Amino acid sequence: MTAEATPPLVGKTEGPASAGPSARGPRASATAGYPRYVAGKLGGAAVSLLAVLVTSFFLFRLIPGDPVKFMTGGRQVSAEQLAAYRREFGLDLPIWEQFTDYCGKALTGDLGTSYQFRAPVLDKITEALPNTLLLTGTSFVLYTVLGIFLGTRAAWRNGGLGDRINTGLALTLYSIPSFWLGLLLIIVFAVGIGPIPGLFPTGGMESGDEQGFAYVLDVAHHLVLPVVTLVAVEYGQTLLVTRSALLDEMGSDYLTTARAKGLRDDLVRRRHALPNALLPTMTLIFINLGRTVAGVILVETVFSWPGLGGLFYQALSVPDLPLVQGLFFVFAAAVIVMNTLADLIYPLLDPRVGR
Questions:
Q1: Which one, 164, 293, 306, 314, has least CB within 10 Å?
Q2: Is the pTM of this model over 0.85?
Q3: Alpha helix locations (H) across the chain?
Q4: What is the pLDDT of residues 184-194, one digit of tens each?
């Protein structure tokens, strides 16, 4: 064969050919696309926050009631005094001007001034937020741990007596209205019924006459019934999601291989099946974490808990428009931020998501 007929060897004198895009591994491709994925999620979150800002302004103006008349305390006042109140809070301006003023201030962190408290809305939210986080944060930890534990046990013994009892109880409690369960617990364990004495306070956060460690115990005593209510109603969702995700993993080849290596069944479940099954549960956990800021309005109202939920209910009854708008925006923003954070963490746990 002649030299002219022999094709040249590409890259012979230049060493190994550099790897092109097709030679990259899946993790490298996922890493390269992650910034674009993050930008898309952050852009979507920003649009959602803007939509919440607009909705919070117009939605609550449909509530019947005149906040100016509430501020007069039911007293007979002249038309000039009512006009002065409206002018003080900007209610005499056209609706579009009120909207642009509200959006401009909200973007700088100014959520307005409460009609009934005559204080900045942000100050009232900051004041009530720790109480809500104490209640919902404690409940969140308990029902998340309980839901994951029972969901794992139910799925691993799918179809057994324990699975049927756990699933049936979770579905039953999850379908019960939280305010109804709270009222039932107050009747039975706070007021007392039959041979059961009243063991817990009917509401509030503290008795008001305790100090030091006695104060901590007093708050914990008041915390029991609302926490039990929230855990009973909320743990079922985590249980069902964890159970469903783990059942999808049960027939995977890697679990068969792990058992073939002689690993104990409990070790296979904890080290291999559960970490992969927790991916859908992770999204639910972050959403519930966002809801801890919002609190549970009905539960806080039933137990007279001085948190954001109770403050929201109180503001709705006026209606205190700046306070209602500010709380609604904070509630929605917390869920949006946590949901976005879950979306950003998800590809780090499973690189296939960000492709």
A1: 164
A2: no
A3: 26-59, 67-71, 79-88, 95-106, 121-156, 161-175, 178-185, 213-249, 253-260, 265-268, 274-294, 297-302, 308-316, 321-349
A4: 999 999 888 87
